[in-house]
Amino acid sequence: MFPTPSTTNLDVSRVYEPAEDTFLFLDLLQEELPFIQKRFAAANAPTPLVVEIGLGSGIVTTFFHKNILPDALFIGTDINPYACSISKETSKENGDTRYFDVLRTNLWDGLRPGLVDVLLFNPPYVPDETVPSIENAVKTDDWLDFALLGGSDGMQVTSAVLDRLEEFLNLARGVAYILFCKRNKPVEVANSMRNRGWIVDMVNERKAGWEVLSIWKFRKVK
Q1: What does the alpha-carbon distance between residue 116 and residue 178 come to, in Å, rounded to a whole number?
Q2: Per-residue confidence at 128, pLDDT binned at 50, 70, 90?
Q3: How many CB atoms lie within 10 A of CB 164?
Q4: Which of 92, 107, 188, 205 could pair with 214 in a Cys bridge, judged by C-beta atoms 3.0 to 4.6 Å apart?
Q5: How many whole angstroms separate alpha carbon 135 and alpha carbon 6?
Q6: CB–CB of 32/61 below 8 Å?
Q7: Which of 33-37, 95-99, 207-211 is predicted most confidently?
Q8: 186 with 214: CB under 8 angstroms?
């Protein structure tokens, strides 16, 4: 087992702290190591671009850099300004990620289409009628709900990413790993994406308390 990156010396109180879904993601990446390295670490292959949407504490990107593709280029996005700063600190505390840029932005905004080789996305998947607004977050300086609440079916943010996946992923070799809870109806989502030409597989699942979490892999080319 690869070690979990440390955030011991950091104040992560204003970002989404590592939880069961985070650790499920880390376990999944370790299991997918042979697939990812075979796909992206071949001699003379272009340097892959790894993008994490919703950085939170930055643990997932730091783990990926240290253990999966150390020589990749990394970009992380988050609407939470504290997540943008903490994720860089997490990287530095764990040996620093050499090529790691952070964008404070909404989801894909600011990225060039067609360049993402690996997408990592642990979305706000909790169903809730209340959807956080930037205006309210600015007034209250409370950004945590952006990491949690996903609209009435928990899919509002995830759907926005899936709807533009074909635009931003490198379709020749790109792969996306996206986390769902059971209430998001991931099987229905997967079938819908298959109807749009995607290869979709569930690659990990775990019961976390009363919730069932799963991570699904999306790609156009096997």
Answers
A1: 14
A2: confident
A3: 14
A4: 205
A5: 32
A6: no
A7: 33-37
A8: yes
For 31, 33, 139, 221, the CA distances from 1, given in Å and listed in that order, are: 10, 12, 42, 29
State how far the Cα of 120 lies from the Cα of 53, in Å rounded to an integer. 6
Sheet architecture: strand order including 49-53: 100-104, 73-78, 49-53, 118-121, 175-181, 211-219, 199-208
Q: How many CA atoms lie within 13 A of 72 on its CB side?
A: 29
Mean of pLDDT values over 184-209: 95
Q: Contact, 193 vs 180, CB < 8 A?
A: no
- One-letter amino acid at 95 equals G
H/E run at residue 215 = strand 211-219
pLDDT at residue number 43? 65
Helix ranges (DSSP H) in the chain: 20-31, 33-40, 59-67, 81-93, 134-140, 156-163, 165-168, 186-195
CB of 179 closer than 8 Å to CB of 21: yes
Q: Give 44-104 as a DSSP string.
A: TPPPPEEEEES-TTSHHHHHHHHHT-TTSEEEEEES-HHHHHHHHHHHHHTT--SSEEEEE
Asked whether the predicted pLDDT for residue 61 surpasses 80, the reply is yes
CA distance 146 to 137: 9
Give kind and range of the element (H or E) at residue 200.
strand 199-208
Chain centre distance of CA 152: 21
